[in-house]
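Dear Dr. H.,

I hope your travels went smoothly. While you were away I took the liberty of generating a structure for the chain from your last submission, since the lab meeting agenda had it listed for discussion. I wanted you to have the full record in hand beforehand rather than looking at slides cold. The sequence, exactly as received, is reproduced here:
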Amino acid sequence: MWIIMIPIWYYAGRKLSSELKSRQVPLLALAAAFSFVIMMFNLPLPGGSVGHATGAAIIGIILGPWAGVIAMTVALALQALMFGDGGIWTFAANCFNMAVVMPFSGYYIYKYISGKAPLTSSRRAVSAAIAGYISLVLAAASTGFMFGIQPLLHQSAEGIPLYMPYGLNIALPAMLLQHIFGYSILEAVITALIFGYIQKTDASLLYGEKIIAADHSSRKSAPA
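The corresponding predicted structure, in token form, is as follows:
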């Protein structure tokens, strides 16, 4: 996964250096800090599993998917270095699932569902919630797939799995079920709440919506 992530990180950095506005730089730092904090709150599910929301979808919606790559990478790096959460060897895989899959899927699902609805429309907030939900499910599916192929990739001379004993038939459903009925619901709620706040305070902050927001404001203030 390092081979995949290194060029993604490089391109994301180049993209942000040319596109990120000065007013968005503090938001990027705040987004990374928010994700770092929210991922520290692990919630238990029946069966002994724990998980967390990430905030990756709403970061992608507000700042754009490439900014989401950087913000989530910083948050995951801090977790790995300060608390050993996620680890260093698996850092690139974690980044692929949470810093690539989630911001990109969240942003494009939101854009597809919201369509050309006005920025103040409730359809936008619903679209953000759905995007948050689906993006975490997709990230869980990607993680489950990575877990499930480990027995095929790493075996002893006797054919015994070295690192992960469970194949795709167990790892993938296990990851999906707990996220479909658990953590993704929390992700959807958090995404909708933050989006609703941005929507009411300054919708021009939303990635790719600057002109639309300005047009909306000018129409609103124009004399009848």
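Two observations you may find useful: The two ends are 57 Å apart (CA to CA). Residues 168-201 form the longest helix (34 residues).

With kind regards,
E. W.
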